[in-house]
Design brief:
Number of strands: 19
Helix content: 10-25%
Shape: globular
């Protein structure tokens, strides 16, 4: 029996993707999780893995084609049984059906030697989560058991989720705000020109940036951090970190400082639902870090940053950034962020005012640290100062709120020894 595989829901309002490469041929027998296609979304160029083992009966797409969520990509034929590895049935999902898990969770399961089909999922609709896989690998509590780690807040049960609003049609970006741009002049009348088509990634970035700049009233708080002691700590720890296979950087300390500050100031770890008149406070801290690639700026996401050590974050960030630059990031690596950090320090400059990564409500810009003369205890001394710019949605926070949140970040970066100990 033929089984179609459609472009899955990409999340976060993504409704289409451009096919970059088809990695299989008709007649190929593939295993579950084998790369099928390479697609480009507004986030990145990523591989879509096969959700099942089987024979590729028909390929419905070709490079350069733009497909919508729900369109058929590949049809699998009856050769699935020959390609399915023999495993002892453990759950109904083990009877040949793929595990209900994201590609990144299945990859984690392979790394930990866990068969995701034998794990009872605790996610929505029985989906297997990363925590379920880790619990199975360590022989911990049964997957699907309710979490007891979060303290009770005494709040009433959460209301049922609001139905997702239909995604806006892809149109002229400014038309979203009811503004129709005037026609461009005919530039050829003044001299020769060259027209270069925008990539799918660049077109979508342009649309999302226009959307964010149009919908969100931006306000920016500027500050500077004395990172002299932090720089010295990093230099002292370089050899020890390398011995553990870690490249210690300023960004890993930034991630930790921001995550802990967000726990104290949850307004900046939120999204605004203007239709409901509600602020959605996220009780998890997933930080996006802007990474420059040949294809454009891409923002992969590190999860539960507030619960990880600086060393863990340094290791995870290096691996994630490498996957992004090589075009090997999974879709789950690129979504779910609650706050974004963009660090242009390696490229120079004295500061930047970045656009908020909608639907987040704030973004932290970081420039290059420079040695400057400052007055300390009545004496002029050289100190290493790092410029910060906190841009936030003025609908959800006032200037005083932004100043307090920025101060919480600054205080932690200026006491780096504590950052190594804080959880």
């Amino acid at each position: 029996m033929s089984r179609p595989f459609v472009l899955p829901d990409l999340g976060e309002g993504l409704t289409e993707a451009e096919i970059r490469q088809v990695l299989v041929r008709e007649g190929d027998v593939v295993r579950e999780d084998a790369p099928l296609l390479e697609v480009e979304t507004d986030k990145a160029t990523v591989e879509i893995p096969s959700p099942m083992a089987g024979r590729v009966e028909k390929i419905h797409v070709q490079p350069g084609q733009t497909v919508k969520v729900g369109e058929v990509l590949v049809t699998f034929g009856d050769g699935a049984a020959a390609a399915t590895p023999a495993v002892a049935p453990a759950t109904p999902a083990a009877q040949g059906a793929p595990a209900p898990a994201t590609p990144s969770t299945r990859r984690l399961a392979r790394e930990l030697g866990v068969d995701p089909r034998a794990v009872r999922g605790s996610g929505p609709g029985g989906r297997v989560t990363d925590d379920d896989v880790r619990a199975a690998a360590t022989g911990g509590p049964a997957a699907g058991a309710p979490s007891t780690g979060a303290p009770s807040t005494g709040a009433p049960p959460a209301a049922a989720p609001r139905p997702a609003a239909p995604a806006p049609a892809v149109a002229k970006p400014l038309a979203r705000a009811g503004v129709e741009p005037p026609p461009l002049p005919r530039f050829e009348q003044w001299g020769p020109v060259e027209r270069q088509p925008l990539s799918h990634l660049r077109r979508t970035i342009a649309e999302r940036m226009t959307l964010a700049a149009t919908l969100i009233p931006h306000v920016t708080h500027l500050d500077r951090v004395d990172v002299t002691d932090l720089d010295a700590l990093i230099r002292r720890s370089l050899d020890e970190a390398r011995a553990r296979g870690v490249t210690l950087t300023l960004t890993s300390f930034l991630l930790k400082a921001v995550a802990l500050a967000l726990r104290e100031h949850p307004t900046f770890n939120a999204s605004l639902d203007p239709d409901a008149g509600e602020l959605i406070l996220k009780r998890y801290v997933h930080l996006g870090v802007a990474v420059a690639t040949e294809r454009g700026l891409i923002v992969p996401v590190l999860r539960d940053v507030d619960k990880k050590s600086v060393m863990e974050l340094a290791r995870e960030l290096a691996a994630l950034a490498q996957r992004v630059r090589e075009g090997k990031a999974a879709l789950d690596d690129l979504r779910g962020g609650t706050f974004t950090i963009t660090n242009i320090g390696a490229l120079g400059g004295t500061g930047a005012l970045p656009i908020i990564n909608y639907p987040e409500v704030a973004i932290l810009g970081v420039a290059r640290a420079r040695e400057e003369a400052v007055v300390r205890d009545g004496k002029i001394v050289a100190r290493l100062l790092l410029p910060l710019s906190l841009t936030f949605d003025h609908r959800v926070a006032d200037g005083a709120d932004g100043a307090r949140f920025a101060a919480a970040i600054v205080q932690r970066l200026e006491a780096p020894e504590r950052l190594l100990l804080e959880w």
